[in-house]
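Notes from the pairing session

We agreed to fold both candidates in a single pass and log them together. This is the raw record for the first candidate, unedited. Please don't reformat it; downstream parsing expects exactly this layout.

Candidate A
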Amino acid sequence: MFTFALGTGAVLIAPAYQSLVPDMVPRPQVPAAAALSSISVNLARAIGPAIAGLLVARIGVSAVFGLNAATFLLYAIVVAFHPQLGGTPQSPERFLPGLRAGGRYVRHAPVVRRILLRAALFLVPGSALWALLPLIATRQLGLGAGGYGVLLGALGTGAVGGAVVLPQIRARLSASALVAVASLTYAAALVAVALSRSIALTVLMLVPAGVAWISFLSNVNAALQLFLPRWVRARGLSVYQMVLFGAQGAGALIWGVVAGAAGLSPAFLISAAVMAAGAASLWLWPFHQIADMDRSLVRWPEPQLLLSADRGSGLILVRITYTIAAEREQQFLQAMVRLRQSRLRTGAADWALYQDGQNPRLFIELFSVPSWEEHLRQHRERQTGTDLEYRDAAAALSDPPPQTGHYLTADVDR
């Protein structure tokens, strides 16, 4: 039960912790901060067990767990009293509507979906190394627990070294190129580990595998932190955590079954081939250019109503009328594809575009929002500069300018 509670706490902490990074450092330094975070994680993974082992021998297991709990308490105090991070949000969302809003954002954000796809294509084959490395140590190299620790240490050393050199690598390679290089390097390491019968060679090959692992994860993590708006950042990162741990868990199961059926070396070779195929898929599904997108938050003017907003506790319907010349129709329809995703990302529950049957130049955009509070959030805190560009691109094609109406749920006696 307590182990389950530890896992639940880790799931709650990780997205919130990662979402703090863009609030702590300037935006251009977010990739470097993500790499620094990766260094701390891998240093802790390597040094923490060693320190714990020494302390257990001197003060006992219970005291070590108590000391560890105290460090978490200290961390909580630091966060609570930090001038930028302490306190509660100015406009906290209710849990279930906020959860649904986060799910809609991820579902209708092509950039986020592409990043999550790339993560899964790397992590599922990449998990073979972590899952089967104990068997490499015992069966293939004849090592014990100490030897397995050396292999893990080589991976950790490569991860720390990769985080150090990552800024120089990122300065020379695009996001897609970095993912391709990391994937192919990791695939080559999988092949080498599968065929090696030398301890020294295996240790040597695990170092670049650690570099590739941390380079990929830092790149993906930084891309998400740079793209996700503040209001949904933690929720988007929580979905990434699901993919991160889910892909590794599913991959461990898959490669364990493959190794049991085909053997240890074939499992590594198959996972390397899958990893290389994932790298080749970058030709079809490259990373989006996040640097070209305006991710700053924009506050839109709030709609003014004559009816009381209290009546807007139910569904809100927004109707926008466009008058589009015949020669601009195709351009308008293309602009509305991007605008549709923007509406659904920022709070719309559904969306539709209609063309007047009697006046083909008249188009009506309809979308509903679950509540008036949710619609106000669309205007106050959920629109980015990119969303504004999409809206203005569609509006500029209408002559006269588009007209907007808001409709509240009417009470009908039954």
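Candidate B (folded immediately after A)
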Amino acid sequence: MPETDPTTEENRLMELETQRHQAQTGNDTQEEKPRKEKPREGTHINIIEGGFVLGFAIVMDLADYFIIGFIPILGDILDLVAGASIWLWVKIRGLDRSRSIFISWSPWIATGIELIPLIGDLPPSYTINVLVVIILNSKWGQAFSKLLKVLSPV
């Protein structure tokens, strides 16, 4: 049985371990550079998604105006659910990233308007809110978004 030099065997094991590590990471002696997240351009909301959310807002405003707005407690619960749903949509889709803080607060502003007794059910606040969010997340609405950043108190 031939004798092997222990240092040669250690060198081979180290080489093998280095090759395995390079194969797992997928790079050959190049350090991985952190990826920069590209800023979003154009519309982030496709037409189907925007249509569904806008339809939801219109139905909620109409139901609040004609049907459920006359039932005090149920109307307020419906208003809170609608505001929370629109806010959740904005947060999950990331529509408020790199935009004015107004977009994050706009569903709650619309809900606050809807909760005002007697006159709160008159304006279509959810419909206006969703339209503003859609406009601000389109390419031509970015100039308006910059204006809101200046006007936003927070």
